[in-house]
Structure to design on (1047 residues):
């Protein structure tokens, strides 16, 4: 019997090639999308789960709102780890990580080539106790205990020394000055970790730790991970931790401000040190100074929803087409029933047909998914692989196909098998089959989804466009950044002078601080020689040189720039408008003094502990952080900061300038790596998540529309076929082609109209929420909806009219004779 | 074999109510060959469908082999149908997706006959109908006469006790029609009861008895003089 079903199924497929193609291809696209996205979601959810103690590890974070600035930091202070271990018995161990950015690293020896290493972390000796990575050489427990010890990942050990064994005991020279001895090699960290490390350097002997304040929430530079003892619940530990944290921060407030924590909080300002679970970091943590880019649970939800939608749309096609085709199969069903087939047997037959088609779709979907996987990985920035060897994967796939086939096949099966024998034999189909209320609802749903996606895509791209074209307060084009400029040593000034001689270079500046991700530093400044919470402003401090304003194209709105002929400018500051407002320098700010506490006071602070700066100018607010945030207080100081050189080049000269730069670099620092980027590209990279979202929305919108159109095309062709006789008679009676096309298209267009009504509020709500991420954002204008609606209607019309026109042009005599 | 008492059937649509059968009493004995005649729209097809249990009556009783079946649920009727009845339609009603062979074999699938028996029986019938050489063709590739012979073969493949035929020659020319009638007559001679609707007096006279209908009622029943 089953064989008989499959035989009929195959013949049906062969006989109706277009129908089969639409059905199988549509479903395959749906399954492939779903598969890719589910793999992505599974990958996102797996972050840090490789760590067998993942559920017992927490990280501390700082949430500080003080002096007009609000910080949420993934880093906290030096004393927190040791204090917590001493005070709370639930703690088994802690580990601090310090990220000083990239380092220039080379093998010890004459003339060895420097490499820039990005994933360098300074770690406490407990690192491997908390992150139990597999050790290739050395002793996990002790390898980070001694000062100037470094532990390498296997790939770095092989890069510098050829093998893990060969690396042991060798020296690496870091930043051309200090020697670090390799005491261990670990296997590369799994890709699904919230941070990556290739060089782990011992924190033993670290100056910053030795000189650090013992106060909490004063200086925040270390990632601190805490491993809880087995059996400790997060909530109980969290409570103990919060008590300790309030007590410690209370001490800080008393010592620094002479205020109780309660009094401070009464002013709306606060400082908190809190806890987050290791397993929440990747998807739920979006703090400053993370160790790497995290994912976002929001996108996991959005992706999952889209995957289900695309699959659902494909299933709807399947159901719609199969049901529409019932007209053609009515006779078969009637005959089978007369001959004794039960309803159950018919359902069985149609189910096996849909399952068979779903199976074919699955094969196609797997081929599709593996073909686009590399490209999908590029899009998501992940390294996901299809787990061909996993039995669980196949099991889930089988279940998925059964469920999909069942879902897609259920409605047509029950619908078709429920025909009344006598009616189908007489060629009477129930009214339902002809008009199909459910079918219309399904088409509305499909197009509503497509329209929502069109609107989202448009809004995301509009926002990105807005970001690209927004007046930022500096000129982001025609700027080249040279990384690791400090590697030139004292040659850096000569390098700059040399480059200024190139006719393509307009100006150059040496500074580690740029309005794209780069060095950051901030401190609290006061308006007088004392520390009070009402006279202090938290200020971003940028050290720049004389050419900074000219090169970046910043606009001065009051006062003057730094002057080479005035040595006193080393204690001058140029503030931005926000800083001005926060200090309350409303009129005539030039000449006002601001102060900061040079070093941590021993005992009480004396007026002489404060250093004075004079305001000489005001720079127009420029977006030095992303457009997601407000422009905060910034002060520009004249000081050495040699991390980067930034050059402004003349239009069209980038190539010759880069060639000259590289030549000059090779001449002055042959063993240092030369690397450069364009500032506008670095700027765009800040919005990579949004760009990805835009691309993904675009792709899925296209797919959803494509699959919906496949379905609409199929439906329209069946409708046209069903109405062949009607069309013939109408034509004989004098209807025009246009009239008939209109007649056939009208119903569909009405449905798309409904879909638009449904989609508009939904899309508006979703995008409105999304835009809240940006302080600087576009308004969603009505034309977006108009355009999306028109696009959907146009697409639907083209799809449907293709069939309608064909039907309308057919020779009526032929269609009538065939009845 | 068949006995009906006051059988009625009413079609209701939104606007009108059509009484297709109003109080039909027929009595058909085993081994008979009964023809039903009457003007178009008088209810012949309706009667055949009700007797064939693919439609249910609205009133009256229908006894099949002494058992009241008019009010049985669809499942039960389907079961009786597939074991006892065979159908031949004016428009053949073959399944386009199946070959000649598969069409004929289909009822045996539903009764669950073993494969070997199925093969033997179908081939025997196809030989008998002279369409063995067309066994792997699809219905669209056959002439009307050939299609109807396939339909007849399908109707009798399960050796039904009763064959219901609704204008089996209606779409055929006279020589093809003749052939189909001869097959039916032969089946009747072998003991199969036949109930046939026809517009042709010539065809009707192949049977032993003619029931004439008018406006949903039986008006006369007359015995056909023995055919030579
Ligand atoms: N599904 C239906 N709905 C409404 N009325 C119907 C339906 N089927 C049949 N009728 C009506 O019932 C009456 C009997 O129809 P039936 O098909 O039995 O006639 P018939 O004698 O077979 O005619 P013909 O010789 O033309 O085939 C007719 O008046 C017809 O219009
Ligand atoms: Mg009739």
């Amino acid at each position: 019997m089953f064989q008989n079903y499959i035989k009929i199924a195959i013949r049906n497929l062969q006989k109706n090639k277009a129908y089969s193609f639409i059905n199988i291809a549509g479903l395959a696209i749906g399954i492939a999308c779903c598969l890719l996205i589910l793999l992505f979601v599974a990958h996102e959810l797996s972050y840090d789960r490789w760590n067998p103690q993942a559920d017992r590890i927490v990280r501390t974070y700082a949430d500080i709102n003080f002096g007009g600035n609000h910080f949420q930091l993934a880093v906290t202070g030096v004393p927190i780890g040791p204090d917590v271990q001493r005070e709370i018995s639930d703690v088994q161990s802690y580990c601090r990580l310090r990220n000083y950015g990239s380092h220039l690293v080379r093998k010890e020896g004459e003339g060895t080539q420097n490499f820039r290493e990005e994933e360098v972390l300074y770690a406490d000796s407990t690192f491997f106790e908390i992150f139990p990575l597999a050790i290739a050489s050395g002793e996990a427990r002790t390898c980070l205990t001694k000062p100037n010890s470094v532990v390498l990942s296997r790939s770095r050990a092989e890069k510098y020394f050829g093998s893990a064994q060969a690396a042991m005991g060798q020296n690496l020279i870091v930043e051309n000055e200090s020697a670090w001895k390799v005491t261990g090699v670990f296997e590369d960290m799994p890709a699904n970790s919230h941070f990556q490390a290739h060089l782990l350097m011992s924190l033993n002997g670290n100056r910053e730790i030795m000189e650090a304040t013992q106060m909490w929430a004063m200086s925040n530079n270390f990632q601190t991970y805490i491993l809880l003892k087995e059996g400790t619940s997060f909530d109980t530990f969290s409570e103990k931790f919060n008590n300790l944290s309030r007590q410690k921060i209370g001490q800080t407030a008393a010592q620094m401000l002479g205020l109780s924590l309660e009094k401070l909080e009464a002013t709306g300002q606060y400082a908190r040190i809190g806890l987050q679970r290791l397993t929440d970091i990747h998807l739920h943590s979006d703090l400053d100074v993370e160790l790497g880019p995290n994912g976002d649970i929001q996108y996991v939800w959005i992706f999952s929803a889209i995957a289900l939608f695309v699959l659902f749309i494909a299933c709807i096609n399947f159901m719609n087409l199969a049901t529409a085709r019932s007209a053609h199969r009515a006779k078969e069903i009637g005959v089978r029933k007369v001959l004794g087939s039960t309803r159950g047997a018919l359902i069985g037959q149609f189910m096996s047909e849909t399952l068979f088609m779903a199976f074919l779709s699955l094969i196609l979907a797997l081929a599709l998914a593996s073909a686009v996987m590399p490209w999908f990985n590029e899009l998501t920035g992940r390294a996901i692989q299809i787990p061909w060897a996993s039995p669980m994967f196949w099991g889930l796939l089988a279940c998925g196909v059964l469920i999909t086939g069942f879902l897609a096949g259920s409605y047509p099966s029950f619908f078709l098998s429920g025909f009344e024998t006598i009616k189908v034999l007489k060629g009477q189909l129930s009214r339902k089959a002809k008009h199909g209320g459910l079918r219309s609802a399904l088409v509305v749903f499909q197009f509503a989804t497509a329209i929502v996606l069109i609107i989202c895509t448009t809004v995301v791209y509009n926002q990105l466009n807005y970001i690209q074209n927004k007046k930022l307060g500096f000129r982001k084009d025609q700027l080249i950044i040279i990384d690791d400029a400090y590697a030139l040593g004292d040659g850096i000034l000569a390098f700059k002078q040399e480059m200024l001689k190139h006719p393509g270079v307009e100006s150059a500046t040496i500074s580690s601080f740029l309005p794209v991700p780069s060095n950051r530093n901030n401190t609290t400044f006061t308006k007088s020689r004392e520390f009070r919470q009402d006279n202090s402003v938290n200020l971003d401090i940028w050290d720049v040189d004389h050419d900074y304003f000219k090169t970046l194209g910043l606009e001065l709105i009051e006062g003057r720039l730094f002057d080479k002929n005035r040595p006193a400018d080393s204690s001058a500051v140029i503030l931005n408008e926000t800083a001005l407002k926060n200090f309350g320098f409303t009129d005539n700010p030039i000449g006002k003094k601001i102060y900061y506490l040079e070093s941590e006071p021993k005992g009480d602070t004396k007026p002489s502990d404060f250093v004075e700066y004079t305001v000489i100018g005001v720079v127009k607010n420029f977006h030095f952080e992303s457009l997601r945030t407000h422009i905060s207080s910034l002060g520009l100081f004249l000081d050495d900061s040699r991390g980067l050189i930034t050059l402004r080049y003349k239009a069209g000269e980038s190539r010759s300038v880069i060639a000259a730069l590289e030549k000059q670099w090779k001449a002055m620092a042959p063993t240092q790596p030369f690397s450069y980027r364009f500032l506008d590209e670095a700027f765009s990279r800040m919005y990579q998540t949004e760009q990805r979202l835009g691309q993904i929305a675009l792709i899925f919108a296209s797919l959803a529309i494509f699959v919906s159109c496949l379905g609409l095309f199929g439906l329209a062709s069946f409708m046209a076929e069903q109405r062949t006789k009607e069309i013939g008679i109408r034509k004989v009676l004098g209807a025009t082609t246009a009239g008939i096309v209109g007649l056939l298209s009208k119903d569909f267009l009405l449905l798309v109209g409904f879909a638009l009504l449904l989609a508009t509020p939904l899309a508006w709500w979703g995008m409105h929420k999304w835009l809240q991420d940006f302080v600087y954002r576009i308004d969603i204008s009505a034309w977006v909806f108009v355009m999306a609606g028109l696009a959907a209607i146009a697409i639907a019309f083209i799809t449907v009219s293709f069939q309608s026109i064909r039907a309308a042009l057919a020779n009526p005599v032929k269609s009538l004779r065939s009845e | 074999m068949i006995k009906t008492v006051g059988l009625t059937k009413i079609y209701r649509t939104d606007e009108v109510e059509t009484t297709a059968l109003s109080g039909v009493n027929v009595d058909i004995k085993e081994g008979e060959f009964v023809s039903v005649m009457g003007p178009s729209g008088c209810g012949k097809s309706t009667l055949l469908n009700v007797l064939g249990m693919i439609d249910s009556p609205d009133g009256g009783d229908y006894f099949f082999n002494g058992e009241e079946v008019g009010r049985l649920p669809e499942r039960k009727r389907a079961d009786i149908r597939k074991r006892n009845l065979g159908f031949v339609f004016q428009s053949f009603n073959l399944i386009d997706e199946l070959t000649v062979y598969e069409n004929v074999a289909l009822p045996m699938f539903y009764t669950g006959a073993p494969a070997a028996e199925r093969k033997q029986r179908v081939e025997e019938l196809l030989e008998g109908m002279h369409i063995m050489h067309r066994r792997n063709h699809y219905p669209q590739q056959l002439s009307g006469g050939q299609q109807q012979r396939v339909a007849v073969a399908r109707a009798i493949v399960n050796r039904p006790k009763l064959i219901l035929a609704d204008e089996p020659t209606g779409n055929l020319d006279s020589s093809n029609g003749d052939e189909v009638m001869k097959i039916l007559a032969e089946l009747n001679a072998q003991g199969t009861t036949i109930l046939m609707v026809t517009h042709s007096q010539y065809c009707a006279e192949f049977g032993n008895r003619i029931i004439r209908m008018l406006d949903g009622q039986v008006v006369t029943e007359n015995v056909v003089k023995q055919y030579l």
Remarks:
- The pocket of adenosine-5'-triphosphate (ligand 1) is lined by residues B 11, 13, 18, 20, 40-46 (CB under 6 Å).
- The two ends of chain B are 26 Å apart (CA to CA).
- Chain B touches chain A through 25 residues (CB under 8 Å).
